[in-house]
Amino acid sequence: MPTPHRTCRNWLTATLAALALGPLAVSPVWSQEPDESDGVEDIADDENVTDIVTSEPRHDAPPEENIATTPAQPLSSETAPEPEERATQVAPNIDLKDVAPAPELPPEPSSPEDNEPLPATGAEPEPETTTGVALDNSADPTETTPAELAEPEVAEPEPVATSLMLLNSEVLPGTATRLAWAPGIQMAGLSSPTPVLVINGAKPGPTLCLTGAIHGDELNGIEIVRRTVYALDPEELAGRVIGIPIVNLPGFERGSRYLPDRRDLNRHFPGNLYGSLADRIAHSLFHKVIRHCDMLVDIHTGSQRRTNLPQLRANMNRPEVAAFTRGFDRMAVVHSTGTEGMLRTAAVNAGITAVTLEAGESLRIQEHQIKAGVNSLNSLMEKQGMISRMFVWGEPEPIYYNSFWIRAEHGGILFSEVELGDRVSTGEVLGYVSDPITNARHPIEAPANGRVIGMAVDQVVMAGFAAYHIGAVTDMPVEEDEQVED
Ligand SMILES: [Zn+2]
């Protein structure tokens, strides 16, 4: 039986040295984060539309530094040199099509929070084989591009799939398993680990990560991740897929968008080991899971009873992100530079190609939206050379380089005249806000041509509520006032 501290002494010594340097090494990254003394800003966030950002217009010639970062070096040298992960166990191969017990959290051999010195362990030296696999793993397979896979090389040996070291487990090639991630914020005895579904393909390829329910009330993404991951066959897969259907488990259990401290987790990435609860959860997820990804699709829905046409939110100023969006079939793309603290922003900054996938509204399971999401993820995996399904591509959806929100000017009850996906023209009435006391009826008109890519469902609104999200297809990018990221 493997013991919790089955680690080799040399490595531990190096790790302890790295840990001692850790806080110094990461401080430049923290210093870029906004000061957050008491969380007042976060609480204020909860009360507004939550995600308004000023977005840069798209520009076709991005600055050089945008191109420089590659997936091969996900974290800059300024980022904390986290100890290389070592597996304490080989993950059991589970047929994900079967129902199986929920994963159990494996014992952690060591972590940055745990500075226990070596003698306490009484550990046996780690067998060198595991270490060797881990080192090889970090060097090679994730860099293999689909293009390279497509051309059979005669002279060079074919790349082979290697083990994936994740969450203290070794996932062998050609196997699927369920691991558990726990951010370590709860009483250890009451901690409920978050399931992580992992498929390490028998063939080499990129690592795609799928995250759902970072906002605990956004249910469509949970089902999109489940259907996508459970349909994969590890023997056929080229690369790895890591799916976390429910990232914000506490929020999910309470039907809430937020964490137990009322913070929005998607404003705290890449996190801070010594920060607020949200900072710590974000840091744990980012460093234990996300940094293993080459590509990330973070799945969301509209917030505050708004619904979204299935769409990607992507920073089209980044060429690698723009290229990535072309793999999603029948999915509109909305250009959005993203806000500081969002998972996709932090991932892109760390060299991981990342987009947000929006589908539908919160607190609902919407079959049409789920199907659209699953279809797009399958087409993405085929485009990336990970699966082969004779995928039939649909008509390409437009890219909305410019989008804007139309807000209610009056309080009352909103009744919409348009539906999600409708094309609207300047002056067209989108809906009315009706005052139930005075009987006043205030029309909301489209200020420009475009398509309804997001909208509020009929509800009581106050003046200023973002009611309609209009996407405009234009050749000339226009400076936009704001965006709502959900
Ligand atoms: Zn969300």
UniProtKB/TrEMBL annotation:
Protein keywords: Hydrolase, Metal-binding, Signal, Zinc
Superkingdom to which the source organism belongs: Bacteria
Start and end residues of each stretch annotated as Disordered: 29-158
Gene3D superfamilies to which the protein is assigned, alphabetical: Zn peptidases
Acidic residues composition-biased segments: 33-49
CDD domains in alphabetical order: M14_ASTE_ASPA-like
Domain Succinylglutamate desuccinylase/Aspartoacylase catalytic: 204-381
Keyword hit for Zinc: yes
Signal peptide residue numbers: 1-31
Biased composition (Low complexity): 117-132
GO-annotated molecular function: hydrolase activity, acting on ester bonds; metal ion binding
Cofactor(s) in the UniProt record: Zn(2+)
Ranges of Polar residues composition bias in the record: 67-79
Stated name of the protein: Succinylglutamate desuccinylase / Aspartoacylase family protein
Record organism: Marinobacter zhejiangensis
Lineage: Bacteria, Pseudomonadati, Pseudomonadota, Gammaproteobacteria, Pseudomonadales
